[in-house]
Structures are given as C-alpha cells and as structure tokens.
Design goal:
The strands form 5 sheets. A 7-stranded mixed sheet has the order 1-2-7-8-9-10-11. Strands 17, 18, 19, 20, 21 and 22 form a 6-stranded parallel sheet that branches. Helices cover 36% and strands 22% of the residues. By secondary structure, it is an alpha/beta fold. It has 12 helices and 22 strands. It is elongated, with a radius of gyration of 24 Å. The chain binds MU-OXO-diiron (FEO). The site of MU-OXO-diiron (FEO) has 9 residues, from helix 2.
Length: 396
C-alpha cells in the first residue's frame, strides 16, 4: 500500500472503520477512522494505537515503513479504547519502545490494560528531541478524558490533536483539501456536538492558550477523520464559534406524539415561527436518533420541546433525549415546552425542569392543551410560535 506522508518522515499509519454505526451510543452513519502516526527521524516515535480489532492493519501499516522493533517511543495521547485497544499487543511487538503518557494516562493504562512496565510521565510543555524533529507535549485534560494530551512537532508545525478537531467519517481520502467543505463542516459539527460540547469552556481556553503561545499550525492531525492541512484556521474558527455558543437564529422543534395532538401543535408553532421570518426545523424523535438532533441543536438558537403526557410523565423518547442533552450542557440557547394531555398533565413541567438543569434559558412557561387541539387552540399555537421567534431574534 502507498505510504501516506504528512510531511517528510511523518506518516499516517491509522485504519479505516467503514462499518461502525454506534460509537458508545452515538450514531456514526459514516463510520470513522482511528488515526495513528509514525514519526521517523534519528529516533522513531509512534503516536497512539488503534481499536483492538484493527491491530493487524496497524501493524501492517507500520511494517510498510519501519520494523516495529526499531520504534523508540510509543506516545499515548489518549487512552480511550478506540486509541489504546491494541496497546498491549503493540507494546509486545515494539519490544524496545519507551512508553510516554501523562500521569493520568499512566493511571488509566494500568486500569485498562494492567500495564506494569515503566511509563515515562510527561508534564505540560515537556519536549523530546527525535534528532531533527522536536516534540512538544501539551496537556489537554478532559479533551476528551483526564489523560488527554496533544503532541506538536515544532519543525513541521503539525499538531497531533487527539480527539480534538476530529470527525467520525470513513473515507479513502485522508486530507481536508480532498473533501467538500460542507461535508467537513457537518462531520466536525456532529463530532463536536456529541463528544466535546460539554467541554466548551476548556476548548475556548485551549484556543486562547495556543494563540498566546504563538504556535504556528501548518497541519492539525486528529485521531479521527480527515487531517487539516488546507487551512487550519477554519476548524479553529468553527470550534471557537461553537465553544462560545454562536449559532444561526434557527429554531429547532423536537417532539414526539401519541395520537397526533402534540404533532399538530408542533406544526402550528412551526408555522408561526416561519411567518416571523425565522428558519425552523421539526424533528420527531420516533424517526430521528438523539445524536442527529444534538448536531442540529448546536446550530440552532432556540429549542422547543413537545411532549404528550403519558402516565403523568414525559413521553419516553423525550426523557431519553433530554437526558442525553443535559449531559452535553448546550450553551446560549433559549427554550420552551409544549404538549397535549388527557387529564392530569405534567409532562411539560418535567421537561421544563430538565431543560433548565441543562442550562437552557426558558423564556415561556409550559404551553399545554387538553386532548385534541381545536382550531382556536391551534391559532394560539401559531401565535406562541411567533412570540418564541421574536424572543430568538431579540437574543441573537
Ligand atoms: Fe476517540 Fe476519546 O476517544
């Protein structure tokens, strides 16, 4: 197989997972890649490994470039099993390599793989010379786990960014300039919203720190998806916007329905929003995965949740979605709830409370109707949509 060279002596040796569709509960319709990198200098370093079931492909890719026994360092940027699942097998094969990780990484390697061997602990901004190339290690705890670290090659200006700036996208292409920008944007947004959104304050700080350090970035090489070499300011700009809660003024209506009453409300509210000149998107949870809705929410200003009352509580699909969303702490969104009920009600109150806990600014009290909405009640829904749209426009 032809070698994939990022820069002189720096290679991609990762693998492509064409068929993964569920990544610990997050849906991945486009598959993913597990990127590992090899730096060949006077000393040779391997950055990260891959998921266990892809070990043989990683070994083949390494052998295509060097004898694994000649590798001097195994640098563990991140211990999550998609990057360290094959760690034990690879360490056995490397034989002579010194393992380097953060102190948190050392602890996690012990717990995940029972590693007893010597591990060199890296501190933030430690450096390592490989000969003509110098590596600088930047600790990035919680992007995505406590152990997370990025590795920068000073001379080539390449940042191996671990989970940061990744995308779950399987492709025979490796670089951003080989892919349509809209595909890249959507893949990066999907990844950010489902994996990193919770850590937005840390991302803002990281971007500020990198700017202060005056680090030039010719290339950003993440552990998933395409390598950014065309214009690294582009993904950084997107991350900056997402981390700071910037979005369009679009409003997302997420709902489910039992006998179509809540759906009728959703459509009437949507009409009101549209007639106020604001873009609106309706998503029924029966037909849409939580992780797809989350990506749409990242790009929306407002969230309206519609739920019927079932057994005095929310419809179960709404419970699942709101639990998932709460964990991601969406930033800078306005919200409200609506729905129909037969006798006791209560679903909207529960949903309202969960949205508040998630940090959403609830701008109206729950809006409920009994049984099937009348023409007059649907007119009220339409007006409710218009009022909500006006609020969204005020807060842009
Ligand atoms: Fe791609 Fe947090 O692992």
């Amino acid at each position: 197989m032809k070698k994939v060279e990022l820069s002189k002596g720096i290679y991609w040796v990762g693998v492509i997972d064409w068929n993964i569709r569920d990544f610990h509960g997050y849906k991945t319709p486009n598959g993913t890649t597990y990127n590992a990198y090899l730096i060949v200098d006077e000393k040779i370093a391997l950055i990260d490994t891959v998921k266990k079931s892809f070990k043989d492909e990683l070994v083949e890719n390494i052998r295509n470039i060097v004898d694994p026994e000649d590798i001097d360092y195994l640098i563990v940027n991140h211990v999550e099993m998609d990057h360290s699942g094959s760690f034990t097998d690879i360490v056995e094969l490397l034989k002579n390599a010194k393992i380097l990780a953060t102190s948190e990484g050392k602890e996690e390697l012990a717990k995940h793989h029972g590693v007893q061997s010597e591990i060199g602990v890296l501190e933030n901004m430690d450096t390592l010379s490989l000969g003509s190339k110098t590596l600088t290690f930047i600790k990035t705890p919680m992007l995505h786990w406590p152990d997370s670290m990025m590795t920068y090659v000073n001379e080539d200006k390449i940042l191996f960014s671990s989970d940061g700036f990744g995308q779950h996208y399987a492709s025979s292409k490796r670089f951003d300039d080989e892919i349509d920008e809209k595909v890249l944007y959507d893949a990066a947004a999907d990844y950010y919203s489902n994996i990193l959104w919770l850590y937005s304050p840390l991302i803002s700080r990281l971007i500020d720190n990198v700017a202060e350090m005056g680090i030039d970035l010719e290339m950003i090489a993440p552990d998933h998806g395409f390598i950014w070499r065309n214009d690294t300011t582009k993904p950084i700009g997107w991350y900056n916007d997402w981390a700071n809660g910037k979005s369009s003024d679009r409003i997302l209506i997420v709902y489910d329905t039992m006998w179509e009453s809540t759906e009728k409300m959703a459509k009437a509210i949507g009409d009101g929003i549209k007639d106020e000149g604001v873009d609106v998107k309706l998503m029924r949870l029966k037909y849409t995965e939580n992780s797809f809705v989350i990506k749409e929410l990242l790009e929306s200003k407002g969230l309206l949740i519609g739920t019927p009352t079932l057994n005095n509580s929310m419809f179960p699909s709404l419970g699942s979605f709101l639990t998932y969303m709460k964990g991601l702490r969406p930033k800078n969104k306005i919200g409200a709830t609506f729905g129909s009920y037969g006798w006791g009600g209560g679903a909207c109150d529960t949903a309202n409370a969960m949205m508040e806990e998630a940090g959403i600014n609830m701008v109206f009290p729950p809006f409920e109707i009994k049984w099937v909405p009348t023409k007059e009640e649907l007119d009220n829904c339409y007006e409710h949509g218009r009022k909500f749209a006006k609020k969204a426009l005020e807060t842009i």
